[in-house]
Structure formats: C-alpha cells, structure tokens
Amino acid sequence: MFTRISADSHEEWLNNRKEGLGGSDSSIILGISPFKSNIDLWLEKTGKKEPRDISNNEKVKYGHEAEDSIRNLFMLDHSEYELFHDEFMILRSNKYPFLQASLDGELTEIETGKHGILEIKTTEIMNKKMLDEWKNGIPNHYYTQCLHYLIVTGYEFVWLRVKLKFAWDSNYQEIRDYHFTREEVIEDMKYLLSQEIKFWNENVMKGVRPGLILPEI
User: Is this model's pTM higher than 0.90 or not?
Assistant: First the structure.
C-alpha cells in the first residue's frame, strides 16, 4: 500500500518531503491551519516560494528534542504494542504517489497484529481559545494530519499523545492520549482525500492558483 523512502541525513529527508503532500499540508489545503494559507502552500509546491525555515524556532526545537522521551513514555504506558520508528523515513502511497507521511512511530498490536500510527505533539496553551480547542478532542489541524497518515498507510488506528504546557502556570503540564480507529473516521478521510487530490492535480500539477480559503472567524 506504500513504499518506504529512506534517507541518510536530515537534508536528504527534507528534500524527499518536497516531492509531495505531507501530513502538515492537509489542514493547509482545507484552510484550517493556524500556521500557513493554501496560497502559501501552492507557491511552495510549485517552486515559486521557498518554505520558511522554522528549525530554529524555540517551540519547534523543544518539540523535536522532547519527542524521544515522550515516545518512550508512551511505550512504557502501552506495553501491548511493538514500536518501529525511523526519523528519516518517508512512507509514500502507492496509489497516490504525491501523498506521503513522516511518522513519529508505527505501532503493532502484539495480540492481534493490527498496525497503527503514533503521533506526538507538544504545545503551549496561550489563551482560552487554544484551551477550548483541546476541551472536547483534538484540534482540527492535528486531526486532519492523523487522517492523512491513515490514508497513506492504510493502517487501522491512531494514537495521539500530546504534552500540554500552560503559559499562565509554568509548573503545570498535562500528558493526554487520544485514540481512534479507521472505521470511526472513514467519511472524514474520504473528504480529505478528495481535497488533496483536487489541490495536487488541479492546482499544483496544472499551475492554477487556488482561491484563498480564509479561516473561520
């Protein structure tokens, strides 16, 4: 269902990522990303603009450096799984070669042999709006990223482990786990896939600038 694309360095991995749409691109295509517009993404994918380098951003650096310890803690808490992780590996869909995934972990349920995805996030809650996004589930831009990974891999479930920090209380943090299965989100996956195909085929491949999708106020 997918092909594994290996890399020997961070730079090679970054170059491989440019060849298609990754998980973080999914929410941008839908116009629900807080970080980038669909026009920005189109400019990048058509070679008209270089992606902004955020590797030195303090929050990005924190998330990258915390990932190993969070992944290890998850495995201590969930011994029912085996884990595979390769930091520089990309999974590329065989059916839709422009769709690819860089996973924080691949899980195999020991008892059943079912395969799933481990996604790790670290985020700092800055205000009530951000807090509300986590109240009843997963913020939409993280949710669509998980949907994208299910599309690419064909895997059967997702675990999202998030470490929440709070700007108004540096001494308080939370670790939360969110789990859902492929069957529960099949309709959302179909919609996301249709929009990703449209963006790639109609906008990127044909060089047609998409209409700007503004986030809801």
Answer: yes
